[in-house]
């Protein structure tokens, strides 16, 4: 029901008090408030609100403290909530419209302050003959940015807004703007919005030498590692570690799958370091996953048993805190940093002198075709021989192959026509999800059994052990379902039409 | 969307003050709120400093020739809109009678606003007429201010019988005491008797108060100019009691 505001910028940043007194000579105005304020923009590290076309603006002054959720393009206030402070996690808020709107977008991600601005705020009403407010003006006076005026129309009084708009543009020489203030504020810091995404967005030229292309890939992944490093150490939210690990896994997959493009000694040396990083981040991530899944675990149990699982949550939280502390120690160590710095320097070296002439001539497209073809064929071969009697390890091996294939497709997707490559990734993703569910259930079942042993004698009630046992059964049936669905899912993945697309896309070009 | 009609057969019982103040409190809690001033006297419109005039008058409005949304005005308060009165509303009965299914007309007119508002308050003129029947069909709650006098007792009884006879199952009648002078023994005695007789009477009591009368001078809802006091607390309690009934 809120009207679309009109936003203006002041060229030349004149003093606002003078501006208001000039405006008051032409229009009946009422200055309702003037005070110093602080405006802070919030979002998740991966810009989930910005990407959902929203801006989250926290406004504080002596007289108010509230959060505005604003539509990024229209500037309309979607939700306003009086808040004393912004919680790190939106789930900490009581049941409210704001929570309902933000939780599905932010999920487990923390709300972080992006940029903070100090301003002098003036609130002015435009009145009619009955002293009724017919439009509202909010004027923000900044030091380092252009002042802003937001004209908020009042429903049913459009003419007043039109008249004032005309006056502001022609007589007061203000300029209309559609750009959110956030963009200007970030520009002052040399940044722009949505400058981080966990998705790989590489643009590679097909004829680029393979050894140069892999360096671009690794440098992008290293950037992701570095960006997520502090958030992982400080445990701001679980996704820093997640993205940190994904970048490590991708690097590892690259080093094994694209090893032809780098000297063997380099691939081998850094493979070891990234393998170690994979290993030290494994336990904390697993514990994060158990805690993130905890409500789902509870929901899978009969209602009367759900509360009995709570001691397991306490146990997992303690274990996670210890694992996190250990990880932070590792990530602050020389053992972690020195090879990573060396890796960064290596990637910056202009050309690889120690590679063979054969490799030096290989283009990235040739390398991509070759590797994707090989790994795809391996996946088809592994999947085709899986029957209902095959051991779980056979599915696990296929899962690992599919992961490698997925990373290769993501590294090189800019070399292929988008619709085809996207369809292939989508099909692969479905198979990966099924294999992931199967594997996760198996691993979690095993982990729960270990946890049971660990909490024996810690004073946990029999009911807790019964609840964990029941949870193992629930995971078991989920895993059986994934196993039963495998054949159908693999048939779709390996369907002749998909195989032909693979063949057409990745056959060697002469 | 919940439709709350403030209604009494009698006039001068505090209907408009109740509508305006409760609508303000609803809007201040974040609910998207609309007040429809159905009284040709236009008192709600006056309190919000909005001209009691609508394009095309009641004739075009009832005939559905005017889009309700285009007639709505924003008040000076966030989340609070008003559909103003018009002097032609004195003929609403005649215009309703001229159309098909007159008692369902208001409900039909309000339907397109269902997604726009959380609460719609209908400020009804006194009397019992075709318009009142249309209001009863449209509303979920009939909030009825009652001054504790013997005459009010009679009109409340009439209203209850009318609602029962009309088989208005959706409608919930919620009377409450209004303009109560606690210094008057008669008010206190009658309140005690009536509360026994009508357990549905809401417990918050709106006092007779000069603070409320000042709404006419301030031309705004009581909570917009008064930050504390018995009258304000009474409206806040009434709003909470009403929320519990929804």
Overview of this structure, please?
- With 510 residues, chain A is an alpha+beta fold.
- Chain A folds into two domains: 6-188, Hypothetical Protein Pfu-838710-001, CATH 2.40.320.10; 210-506, CHAD domain (Alpha solenoid), CATH 1.40.20.10.
- Chain A has 17 helices and nine strands.
- In chain A, strands 5-4-3-2-6-7-8-1-9 form a nine-stranded antiparallel sheet.
- Chain A is globular, with a radius of gyration of 29 Å.
- Chain A starts with 5 loop residues before the first strand and ends with a helix.
- The mean pLDDT of chain A is 92.
- Chain B contains 13 helices and eight strands.
- In chain B, helix 1 crosses helix 13 (230-244).
- Chain B has helices at residues 15-28, 43-47, 57-62, 68-71, 92-98, 105-110, 130-138, 150-165, 185-197, 210-213, 215-218, 222-225, 230-244; strands at residues 2-6, 33-37, 73-74, 80-83, 119-123, 141-146, 172-180, 205-207.
- With 246 residues, chain B is an alpha/beta fold.
- Chain B has one domain (2-244): Rossmann fold (3-Layer(aba) Sandwich), CATH 3.40.50.
- The longest helix of chain B is centred in the middle third of the chain and has 16 residues, at 150-165.
- In chain B, strands 3-4-2-5-1-6-7-8 form an eight-stranded mixed sheet, sandwiched between helices.
- The chains are: A alpha+beta (510), B alpha/beta (246).
Using the alpha-carbon principal axes, give the shape of chain A. Answer: globular
The CATH topology of the largest domain in chain A corresponds to CHAD domain
Q: How would you sum up the global shape of chain B? A: globular
| CATH homologous superfamily designation of the largest domain in chain A | CHAD domain
Give the radius of gyration of chain B. 17 Å
Show the largest interface. A-B, 15 and 17 residues
Helix content of chain A: 55-70%
- What fraction of residues of chain B sit in β-strands? 15-25%
> What is the assembly state of the chains in this entry?
heterodimer
Task: Report the span from N to C terminus of chain B.
Answer: 11 Å
């Amino acid at each position: 029901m809120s009207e679309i505001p009109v936003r203006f910028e002041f060229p030349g940043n004149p003093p606002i008090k003078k501006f208001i007194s000039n405006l008051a000579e032409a229009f009946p105005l009422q200055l309702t408030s003037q005070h110093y304020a602080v405006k802070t923009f919030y979002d998740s590290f991966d810009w989930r609100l910005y990407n959902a076309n929203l801006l989250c603006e926290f406004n504080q002054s002596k007289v108010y403290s509230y959060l505005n959720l604003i539509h990024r393009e229209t500037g309309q206030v979607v939700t306003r909530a009086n808040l004393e402070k912004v919680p790190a996690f939106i789930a900490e808020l009581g049941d409210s419209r704001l929570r309902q709107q933000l939780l599905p977008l932010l999920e487990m991600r923390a709300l972080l302050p992006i940029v903070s601005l100090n301003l002098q705020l003036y609130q002015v009403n435009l009145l009619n003959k009955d002293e009724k407010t017919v439009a509202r003006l909010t004027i923000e006076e900044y030091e380092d940015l252009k002042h802003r005026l937001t004209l908020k129309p009042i429903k049913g009084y459009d003419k007043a807004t039109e008249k004032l708009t005309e006056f502001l543009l022609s007589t007061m020489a203000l300029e209309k703007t559609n750009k959110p203030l956030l963009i200007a504020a970030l520009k002052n810091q040399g940044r722009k919005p949505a400058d981080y995404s966990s998705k790989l967005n590489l643009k590679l030229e097909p004829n680029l030498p393979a050894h140069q292309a892999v360096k671009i890939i690794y440098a992008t992944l290293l950037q992701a590692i570095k960006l997520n490093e502090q958030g992982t150490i400080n445990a701001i939210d679980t996704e820093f570690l997640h993205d940190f690990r994904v970048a490590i896994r991708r690097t590892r997959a690259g080093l094994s799958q694209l090893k032809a493009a780098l000297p063997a000694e380099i691939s081998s040396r850094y493979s070891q370091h990234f393998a170690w990083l994979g290993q030290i981040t494994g336990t904390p991530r697993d514990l994060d996953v158990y805690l993130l899944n905890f409500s789902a675990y509870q929901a899978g149990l009969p209602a009367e048993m759900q509360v009995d699982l709570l001691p397991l949550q306490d146990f997992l939280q303690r274990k996670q805190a210890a694992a996190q502390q250990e990880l932070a120690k590792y990530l602050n160590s020389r053992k972690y940093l020195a090879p990573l710095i060396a890796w960064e320097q290596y990637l910056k070296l202009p050309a690889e002198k120690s590679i063979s002439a054969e490799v030096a001539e290989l283009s990235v497209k040739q390398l991509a075709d070759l590797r994707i073809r090989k790994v795809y064929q391996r996946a088809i071969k592994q999947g085709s021989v899986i029957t209902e009697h095959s051991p779980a390890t056979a599915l696990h091996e296929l899962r690992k192959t599919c992961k490698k294939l997925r990373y290769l497709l993501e590294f090189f997707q800019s070399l292929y026509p988008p619709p085809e490559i996207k369809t292939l990734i989508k099909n692969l993703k479905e198979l990966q999800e099924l294999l992931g569910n199967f594997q996760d259930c198996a691993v979690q079942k095993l982990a729960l059994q270990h946890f049971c042993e660990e909490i024996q004698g810690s004073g946990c009630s029999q009911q807790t052990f019964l609840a964990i046992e029941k949870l193992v059964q629930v995971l078991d049936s989920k895993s059986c379902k994934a196993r039963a669905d495998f054949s159908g899912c693999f048939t779709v993945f390996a369907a002749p039409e998909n195989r032909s697309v693979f063949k057409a896309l990745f056959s060697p070009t002469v | 969307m919940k439709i709350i009609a403030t209604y009494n057969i009698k006039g001068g019982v505090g209907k408009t003050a109740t509508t305006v103040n409760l609508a303000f409190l609803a809007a201040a809690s974040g609910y998207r709120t609309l007040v429809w001033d159905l009284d040709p006297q236009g008192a709600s419109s006056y309190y919000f400093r909005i001209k009691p005039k609508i394009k095309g008058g009641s004739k075009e409005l009832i005939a559905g020739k005017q889009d309700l949304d285009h007639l709505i005005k924003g008040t000076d308060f966030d989340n609070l809109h008003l559909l103003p009165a018009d002097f032609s509303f004195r003929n609403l009965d005649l215009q309703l009678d001229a159309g098909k299914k007159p008692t369902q007309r208001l409900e039909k007119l309000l339907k397109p606003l269902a997604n726009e508002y959380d609460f719609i308050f209908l400020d009804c003129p006194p009397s019992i007429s075709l318009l009142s029947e249309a209001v009863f069909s449209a509303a979920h709650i009939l909030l009825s201010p009652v001054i504790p006098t013997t005459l009010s007792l009679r009109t409340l009884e009439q209203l209850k019988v009318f609602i029962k006879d009309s088989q208005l199952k959706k409608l919930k009648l919620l009377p409450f005491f209004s303009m109560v002078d606690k210094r008057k023994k008669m008010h206190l005695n009658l309140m005690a008797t009536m509360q026994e007789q009508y357990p549905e009477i809401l417990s918050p009591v709106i006092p007779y108060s000069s603070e409320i009368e000042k709404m006419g001078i301030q031309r705004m809802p009581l909570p917009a100019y008064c930050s504390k006091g018995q009258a304000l607390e009474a409206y806040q309690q009434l709003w909470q009691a009403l929320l519990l009934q929804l």
